[in-house]
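Tokens for chain A. Residues wanted.
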């Protein structure tokens, strides 16, 4: 709470972030999943090990500070994974978030290309509509002149 309510005599440097800048930065990384720290294959491996070890499913496990079940599960899982890897097994790793600037530029280019494609599609639709209207006008004029000739 000190960071929100500094003691008397301490200057409070709290300030609101620049909202347009914050939104811009958030948009740059909107496709990144900060919660993915293991691959689905590793998660499945862990689930299978815990089931084999007789542990409850994660949803039923008691993570309270006074219960050691989750600590025992961690130690068991650590040992099983070490045995698996030392025995020649392999598990895929999550790519480290390196090259962030390049990744951001690639996503921006993808979004720009998508926007250009959408714009081109809108222009094609508009052109088709204009051609249809022109054709309709031509047909109306032809009908008009045909009636005039009769």
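Reply:
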């Amino acid at each position: 709470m000190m960071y929100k309510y500094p003691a008397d005599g301490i200057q409070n440097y709290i300030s609101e972030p620049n909202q347009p800048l914050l939104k811009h930065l958030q948009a740059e990384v909107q496709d990144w999943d900060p919660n993915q720290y293991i691959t689905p294959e590793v998660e499945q491996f862990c689930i299978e090990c815990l089931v084999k070890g007789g542990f409850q499913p994660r949803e039923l496990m008691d993570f309270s500070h006074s219960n050691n079940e989750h600590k025992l599960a961690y130690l068991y899982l650590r040992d099983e994974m070490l045995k698996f890897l030392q025995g020649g097994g392999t598990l895929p790793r999550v790519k480290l978030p390196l090259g962030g600037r390049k990744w951001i530029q690639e996503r921006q280019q993808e979004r720009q290309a998508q926007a250009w494609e959408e714009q081109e599609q809108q222009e094609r639709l508009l052109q088709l509509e204009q051609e249809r209207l022109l054709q309709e006008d031509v047909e109306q004029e032809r009908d008009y002149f045909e009636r005039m000739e009769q």
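The chain has a mean pLDDT of 86. The helical segments are 19-28, 40-52, 69-86, 100-149.
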